[in-house]
Design the sequence.
């Protein structure tokens, strides 16, 4: 490849564009919280969670060295230059345009960089890393600002620990409703040969949701609600029979329980959502449940109450919802849903939402 083309190719090459889909709020302060260029050549970043980053590389010339930079949303307060060492000439933090933050790594001359092999990888909701160079031992001294390894998940885990210490028994409180007056169908998603979503560590949706559903059934029964499950064990059950159980027996409400998986099994995608098909009753039931399940899932995003055209909620004749209790492929949610105590919390939350709905509409 001629030098001309080489330069042209790298003039403004976007190496990797990472999208963090769910939220992109217009924030004013810089999304860059901390950075560290380690002696092994790995650049680590900590950002606000759900940040969109863009990374670029530009081949240098005689005066300016090769440059790698990342743009972050939000405006930097104080632009600055940090002196480098070894293969790094300097690191600059600036605001190239209003409302943005740019971190530039400028290399000293004669580096054998291979930018086409670089990958900016999201390692948590708020953490990123990219290997820029391989350095012989001790030829580069790490530079950085702030604490990069303050993991979002760790913070959440910590808050969850505090939460479980302080408010451990809060979730156990369920409202009283008129006994022997209501009839609910609970539908644990999938089953048997259809495991549904497969999550981190092989966590199976069909098993997780069956466990949660059984707990919900027990809790509702204790409150004097008649409950029927569409399946009680790991069997394959088509969608039409699930619906007909509820329609045939004239249930008051139908609650289908599922867990999510993200495309590409992205570990940074977590969150809870509840679907209804139509009607204010379905929507109210979805809202009551969504509100409660969020309370017992600290740190996991609220993906909202939404309309969905899923077969089981579209074809049932009573108010019906489909609850997604988290992403089994998400680091945060999987860690939560694999634990019995958290499934218990989710079951209490779903039960609470149902009881609140029943007492309101009863
Ligand atoms: Zn499912």
Sequence:
């Amino acid at each position: 490849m001629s030098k001309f083309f080489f330069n042209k190719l790298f003039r403004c090459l976007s190496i990797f564009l990472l999208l963090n889909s769910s939220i992109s709020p217009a924030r004013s302060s810089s999304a860059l919280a901390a950075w560290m260029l380690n002696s092994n050549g790995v650049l680590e970043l900590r950002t606000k969670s759900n940040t969109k980053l863009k990374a670029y590389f530009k081949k240098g010339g005689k005066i300016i060295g090769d440059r790698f930079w990342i743009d972050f949303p939000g405006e930097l307060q104080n632009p600055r230059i940090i002196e480098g060492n070894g293969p790094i000439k300097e690191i600059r933090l600036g605001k190239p345009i209003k409302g943005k933050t740019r971190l530039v790594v400028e290399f000293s001359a004669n580096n054998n960089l291979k930018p086409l092999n670089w990958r900016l990888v999201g390692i948590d909701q708020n953490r990123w890393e990219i290997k820029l160079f391989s350095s012989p031992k001790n030829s580069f001294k790490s530079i950085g600002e702030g604490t990069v390894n303050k993991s979002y998940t760790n913070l959440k885990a910590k808050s969850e620990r505090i939460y479980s210490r302080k408010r451990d028994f809060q979730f156990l409180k369920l409202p009283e409703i008129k006994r022997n007056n209501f009839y609910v169908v609970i539908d644990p998603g999938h089953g048997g040969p259809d495991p549904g979503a497969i999550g981190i560590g092989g966590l199976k949706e069909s098993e997780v949701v069956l466990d949660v559903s059984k707990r919900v059934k027990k809790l509702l029964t204790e409150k004097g609600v008649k409950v029927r499950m569409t399946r009680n064990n790991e069997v394959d059950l088509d969608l039409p029979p699930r619906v007909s159980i509820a329609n045939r027996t004239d249930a008051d409400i139908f609650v289908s329980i599922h867990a999510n998986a993200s495309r590409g099994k992205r570990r940074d995608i977590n969150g809870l959502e509840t679907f209804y098909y139509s009607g204010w009753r379905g929507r109210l039931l979805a809202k009551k449940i969504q509100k409660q399940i969020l309370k017992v899932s600290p740190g996991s995003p609220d993906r909202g109450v939404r309309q969905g055209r899923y077969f089981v909620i579209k074809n049932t004749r009573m108010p019906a919802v489909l609850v997604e209790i988290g992403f089994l492929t998400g680091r945060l949610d999987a860690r939560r849903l694999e634990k019995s105590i958290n499934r218990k919390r989710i079951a209490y939350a779903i039960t609470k939402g149902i009881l609140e709905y029943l007492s309101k509409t009863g």
Q: What stands out?
A: The pocket of zinc ion is lined by residues 189-190, 196, 205, 258 (CB under 6 Å). The longest strand covers residues 100-107. Residues 154-361 form a domain with the Aminopeptidase fold (CATH 3.40.630.40). The two ends are 75 Å apart (CA to CA).
